[in-house]
Structure formats: C-alpha cells, structure tokens
Amino acid sequence: MTDPNDDMLDDLFGQARNVAPEPSEALVARVLADAAAVRHAAATPKPTLLDRFFDMIGGWPAAGGLVAATLGGLWIGVAPPASVEDFTAAMLGEQVAVGILSSDTVFDMDPLADG
Amino acid sequence: MAEGGLWPSAIYTRRPRAVAKHPMNTTWDPKVSVSDADLLLAFAQGNGQAARELTQRLLPRVLAQATRMLANPTEAEDVAQEAMLRLWKIAPDWRAGTAQVSTWLYQVTANLCTDRLRRRRGGVSLDQVAEPPDETPSVAARMQTQTRLRALSDALAELPERQATAVSLRHLEGLSNPEIAQIMDISVRSVESLTARGKRALAAILAGRKAELGYHDD
To answer: Among partner residues B59, B64, B202, which is closest to A20 by beta-carbon distance?
Structure first.
C-alpha cells in the first residue's frame, strides 16, 4: 500500500521537473556582460611596484614636476645665483672656515724617528 | 522526463585534438562538438565566442535547476547569473580532468539555492501572500501549480541543507545516485540516506497543506 503523502510528493516532484524556463534575452545579456567584464579584468595587466608608485604620486605629470624641482634644487646648490648667496648670507651670516691646526703644522711634521 | 539536456551532450563526445591542444589559436567549427572544459579554457585565454557558446549550453540548465528549487523566477535568475559569474571567474584556474563543468555547476547552483532557502526561513515573502482568486480555469490551474511549487520549495527550505540538495538533485533534476555522490563529494550510500530522510521529512511537512494544495485522500 502506498502512502498518500508519497503520491502527493511524487506529483509535486513531477510538476517541478516540468518547469524548464527559457533564459530571457535580458538574463543572457547580463551573463555575457559579466563574462566580458571578467575577461577584461583578466586581460588588464597587473600594476608593477613602479606603476603603483607613479599612481600614488599622481602619474607621469607629477613625476615630471618632481624631477624638474629636484634638478632645480640641485643646480641652485651647486651654482647658487648671486641673489641666493646674498639671501643666505643675510639669513645665516657669512660662511667662515675655521682651522684648528694650520695645514703647515699637519703636513710639515717630521716623520717620527725610528726607535 | 523532458530534461534530456541536463548533461550537455558535448561532454560525452570526443573532442577534436587540435581544439583541445590550442583552444586559443583555433576557431572551432560549430558543427563539431567541443567539450565544456575546452570552451572554458578558450574563454580563459580571451575568446569571447566561447562565453556565448557556454552560456547557450549551460544557462538553461542552471536556470531550470534554480527555478525548480526556489519557485521564484526573479530569485532563480539572480542565482543563475551568479552561478555563471562564478564559472567565468574560475575559468583561469580550471584544471581539465578534475571535474566536469556541468558537475561543478550543479554544485554551485545547489549551494546558491540553499543559501537563498536558508534566508527564506522565518520570513514571509510577497510571493507567499495569497493573490485574489481568478475565475478563469486556466489561470486558476496555473496559480495552483505555482502555489504547489512554492509549497515544495518552502518545504525544501525547512530541510537540513545537505538533505535539500540531495533531494532536489534526485527528484527535481532526475540525477542518479552516483552522479549526486560525485556532485556532493559523498558516498552513494550517503546519498541514499540523505534522499530517503529528506523525502520523508518533506512528506511530513507538506502533509498539513494537502487540502490547501488541492490533494485529497481518496
């Protein structure tokens, strides 16, 4: 003897198995858009450490400005214009070199006698 | 059963050697069957046509599985899209020979559905609210079918997840116990136990709604 509840369940399973919806065009489009996005992400090369550094400072334009400023500063240090020298002299005073020992004393010493 | 396409026929066909070796450099002949795994490999190597072919092959089955388990078209579409998205994402790491794409998709879809069913427990969605009766016989019949399928889905939501998965694969998808064992990565004996217990539990849950669902003891 079969359980009537089993009959009901088998009927429900049968009805569920008959459900076979066709994917809508919108769903297919969504799925293909996902596929394209994943493919695009995979095709984009991962940034190197240098790329990430440039991104951090603001890209190539910022890097160019940084290099120009660095070189400018270096040049001012090596060959300061007169106005800069006057300014630093006014702010910091004249540069004075003080020798504790005269060069004569250091270099003209007699070699130590043996023994 | 009408689902002859549950297991894509291409899986059982021998794949052309040239396509298998160089999926990226080869455009396949649509008349020649190529395995799902080969198409996935081609997709991973940047072939957009492979995505269209895989979608055409696999999406109907994924959507059907989700619809049968959830009895809600919107939720089923979301699950189907998510399952396919996971397929696209795993493509670069797919190792041919370890699993069949269809097996993997059954598992992913079932897991996504049981997640949804778990969230459904305790809450009453708008779909469960009774709608005004329609006097047209065909519409009434359709509504009764929808009510029954929703009742079955809600009863599945009451089961432990592994039982719900095993029962749905066995009785909604019509898969064999060895196939389910492979999908769930358990023994055939465990599948038999899960489906038997799950079916008994479902019958008990639905017994109280028998009259409401239009079934009568004769």
So the answer is: B64
Query: What is the separation, in whole angstroms, between the first and last Cα of chain A?
Result: 127
User: Does the beta carbon of B67 lie under 8 angstroms from any beta carbon of chain A?
Assistant: yes
- What are the chain A neighbours of B207 within 8 Å (beta carbons)? 5
Q: Which of B44, B1, B52, B41 is nearest to B19 (CA)?
A: B41
Would you state the pLDDT for residue A32?
97
Show residues of chain B in contact with A19, CB under 8 Å.
64, 67-68, 149
* Contact B32/A at CB under 8 A: no
- Rounded to whole angstroms, the Cα distance separating B92 from B99 reads 15
- Taking contacts as CB-CB distances below 8 angstroms, the residues of chain B near A4 are 215, 217
- Chain B closest CA to A46's CA: distance in Å? 15
Cβ–Cβ below 8 Å for A17 and B60: no
Q: What is the pLDDT of residues B63-87, one digit of tens each?
A: 999 999 999 999 999 999 999 999 9
The whole-model pTM stands at 0.68
pLDDT digits (tens, 9 = 90+) for B115-151: 999 988 766 544 444 445 555 668 888 888 899 999 9
> CA–CA separation, B66 vs B75, rounded Å?
8
CB atoms under 10 Å from CB of B214, counted, come to: 14
CB spacing of A24 vs B77 below 8 angstroms:
yes
- Angle at which helices A25-43 and B48-70 pack, to 10 degrees? 130
Q: Is B204 on the interface with A (CB under 8 A)?
A: yes
pLDDT tens for each residue of B3-56: 333 333 333 333 333 344 444 444 555 556 789 999 999 999 989 899 999 999
Q: What stretch of H or E contains A90?
A: helix A82-92
pLDDT, mean of residues B169-191 = 96
ipTM field: 0.77
Number of Cβ pairs closer than 8 Å across A and B? 111
Report whether B201 contacts B161 (CB < 8 A): no
Indicate the Cα dihedral angle B93, B97, B103, B108, nearest 10°.
Answer: -20
